[in-house]
Specification:
The protein is 32% helix and 25% strand. It has 7 helices and 12 strands. The strands form 2 sheets. Strands 1-3-2-6-5-8 form a 6-stranded mixed β-sheet, covered by helices on one side. A 6-stranded mixed β-sheet has the order 4-7-9-10-11-12, sandwiched between helices. The chain starts with 5 loop residues before the first helix and ends with a helix.
Length: 216
């Protein structure tokens, strides 16, 4: 009897035991072209992103906050959306947003392949937008980002309009109220921007952000 393929046994949005080869077989399947992929030491998780506007709007707000703050403070920054990073055979992650920040980062060249963490540094800041995956985002995924070398990790709770930020340092992590990679940026201000988006358009929010950042 022929054995079933990993695609046949695959269950989305949960951690499933799998080899790297099984994970790669699903990642190469065009049926999951728009999915987000995670792998960590023998387990994989394939997420089907929400298609509603809440996740998309909060993604835009979080990106604008970070980009505008870095711009006003003259910080060197490069942003990526849904980019994959991997250490072949060990782990892969594909967060909603990630940023290289600082004077000395070496940014990988343009490519259609995942960024190889054996050749290039990990992103400085990673942001996950959680509509249905909040518990996993604040739990299991932190176990991926810590050994990968990510320095700061934010989780936006789309349903609650809230945000939790973690500093990752020397293999441990703790929640923070002010960004360490963007000094002076208070997490409460990011939360307020998310809440303002319920009633204000992006232009209003961006003008408020620019005014707030210029006063600090």
């Amino acid at each position: 009897m022929a054995s079933s393929s990993p695609t046949q046994n695959f269950v989305a949005d949960t951690w499933v035991k799998a080899t790297w080869e099984e994970f790669m077989a699903i990642a190469d399947n065009p049926e999951y072209e728009k999915a987000n992929f995670y792998y960590d030491r023998g387990y994989m998780r394939i997420e089907i992103p929400p298609i509603g506007s809440s996740h998309s709007q909060d993604n835009s707000i979080a990106h604008n906050v970070v980009s505008l703050y870095a711009t006003v403070k003259n910080s060197r920054i490069k942003s990526l959306i849904n980019c994959s990073f991997w250490r072949a055979g060990i782990r892969e992650f594909q967060p909603d947003l990630d940023f290289y920040i600082g004077a000395e980062f070496r940014f990988p060249p343009r490519s259609n392949s995942p960024i190889n963490l054996d050749e290039f540094p990990p992103p400085t800041l990673v942001i996950e937008l959680s509509a249905t995956s909040f518990n996993d985002d604040i739990g299991r995924k932190r176990l991926i980002y810590k050994p990968a070398g990510v320095r700061e990790y934010w989780v936006v709770d789309v349903n609650a309009g809230d945000i939790i930020a973690f500093e990752i340092f020397q293999g441990s992590s703790g929640d923070i109220q002010e960004s360490r990679v963007l000094p002076g940026l208070e997490i409460a201000l990011v939360k307020e921007a998310l809440q303002r988006s319920l009633t204000q358009d992006d232009g209003e929010i961006n003008r408020w952000l620019l005014q707030s950042f210029s006063q600090n």
